[in-house]
Amino acid sequence: MRERRAAAATARALVLAAALAAALAAGCASGGGAGARGPRLVAGATPAPVDSATLLMWRFDETGGPRVADSGPLRIEGRAGVDTRTEFGRLRNARLFTASLESFAYAPYRPVLDPIAGFTVEAWIRPVAFGAYELTPIAGRWTAQPSEQSWLFALVGRGLTPVIAGRPSPGTFASHVAGGGPGRLMFLYQPEDAGPARAYFSSVPVELERWTHVAVSFDGQVVRFYLDGMPDSQHAATGRIRDSRAPLLVGNAFDWRGLSDFGGELRAEGVLDRTPYYAFQGDIDELRLSTVARTEFPHARFGGGR
């Protein structure tokens, strides 16, 4: 088992190195985009770098349409739902997510998405509301199917009663949010070894209608949260994140099998319950996944702003 994991890790590292070299060569050949017309960069803001540990880098700088480009070496492109749109973000453009089942960004499963050892997920977010139910995902690879549960990075919701929320929650995450308050960051993962899923929370909630850089890293021993590039809290947590065939879903949580691209647009037409229980409301920018547990985020220390 250990030999197979080591071989898989070596193969993935070689793929990442080759892809990064190709991406850098392509950038040099095209002048790295210098002089190209595009969305503005906020004064004082610094884009997250793409390096050898970058698994995925969605900058959300598109000017429209469903395509979500990946600036990372593996070019893991995504597609956005019809109820998202692009607008000015923390750095150039961002993707605005709304209270709709059709508000999401999606990339199908591929083996390279499974964390080997270290792992980091980070983004700039500007939420305009906390969800009425258990949580609202920022990004994750987690479904209601036990065999499709790896990790989830989310904001804890308000957990309203059915009378106030309008209808009862499906309860997908009900057993995981105890210990977190509204607006706190949550990292949920399923260990590779048998046992229940583990959930951890930031000590400080994220503010509404304010840009905040949020990050969580896991090195197999400690889960660490960061806000605007600064440490927030850390938690002892042993065990590798379990591999699964779950896709990457940003800004929402539902059964991805209900997705259809009939007519050229990716829609959740096959999801029978149209209630957007877990839809993120607000902007997400500069989503980066990494294959190491990062501890430094210098590009995030100029954070804040409305």
- Indicate the CATH architecture of the largest domain: Sandwich
The number of E-state strands comes to 16
Residue runs with pLDDT of under 50 for 5 or more positions: 1-11, 13-38
Overall spatial form: globular
Query: What's the number of domains?
Result: 2
Largest sheet: 8 strands, antiparallel
What is the CATH third-level topology name of the largest domain? Jelly Rolls
So how many helices?
A: 2
Query: What would the average pLDDT be, to the nearest integer?
Result: 87
Order of helices and strands: HEEEEEEEEEHEEEEEEE
Helical content, roughly? 10-25%
SSE-based structural type: mainly beta
Q: How far do the termini sit from each other?
A: 49 Å
**CATH class value of the largest domain:** Mainly Beta
Radius of gyration: 18 Å
| Beta strand % | 25-35%
Question: Which descriptors would you attach to this protein?
Answer:
mainly beta, 8-stranded antiparallel β-sheet, 2 domains, 2 helices, LamG domain-containing protein, globular, 306 residues, Jelly Rolls
